[in-house]
Amino acid sequence: MSDKTDLKPPFTRGAVDIISRKTVYDGFFKMHKLRLRHRLYRGGWGGEMERELFVRGNAVGVLLYDPEHQLVALTEQFRIGALEREGGPWCLEVVAGMVEEGESLEDVARRELQEEAGLEVQALHFIRSYLPSPGGACERMHLFCGCADLRDIEGYFGLADEHEDIRLRVFPLQTVLDAVNRGDAAIDNAASIIGLQWLQLNRERLGG
């Protein structure tokens, strides 16, 4: 019987044999095709298989919170992946951006806060990092909470040369917590849901 307190799988990266890897698409994103095999739970190696891998890299997200006034700020923007979403492809999200070479996670967070919200924050509280879709993508999201005075900051942001058209919206904290808790489709992306659930558990230590 396995140890019920040990969450680690029995295999590591060494249990995967990459036979070949090639780039099959290199545009706004990249797609790799891999031929591989891996070890099996019942012993030995599985047969060779092909898998496509969506190569996106690391991202940083920041949930904006105003503990004094009990406010949360979220961006609203068009998302191609939500094109067929019942409510339409404009999504409420945390401030977020991709990590570029040589940048620290906090550097990215502060850059994106300026670009998408016109804000500086004194402290960034690390929430956690996670894999949004490991079944076919290698992206890792690093999620933070940034505290700031969010009164009168709503506006339009983003870099026009990157086709960004971002609306920053501010809501009462309880409004967004209630929306998440009842499964409201208005907030239906992982980073926002994880960030808000973390805030619900940790707001007291942030002063809220």
From TrEMBL:
A motif (Nudix box) lies at residues 97-119. It is an enzyme of class 3 (hydrolase). Belongs to the Nudix hydrolase family. NudF subfamily. The lineage of its organism: Bacteria, Pseudomonadati, Pseudomonadota, Gammaproteobacteria, Cellvibrionales. GO terms for molecular function: ADP-ribose diphosphatase activity; ADP-sugar diphosphatase activity; metal ion binding. Residues 55-200 form the Nudix hydrolase domain. It comes from the Bacteria. Its EC number is 3.6.1.13. Keywords: Hydrolase, Magnesium, Metal-binding. PANTHER family: ADP-RIBOSE PYROPHOSPHATASE, UDP/ADP-SUGAR PYROPHOSPHATASE. Its cofactor is Mg(2+). It comes from Microbulbifer pacificus. Acts on ADP-mannose and ADP-glucose as well as ADP-ribose. Prevents glycogen biosynthesis. The reaction catalyzed by this enzyme is a limiting step of the gluconeogenic process. CDD domains: NUDIX_ADPRase. One of its GO terms (cellular component) is cytosol. This is ADP-ribose pyrophosphatase. It catalyses: ADP-D-ribose + H2O = D-ribose 5-phosphate + AMP + 2 H(+). GO terms for biological process: nucleoside phosphate metabolic process; ribose phosphate metabolic process.
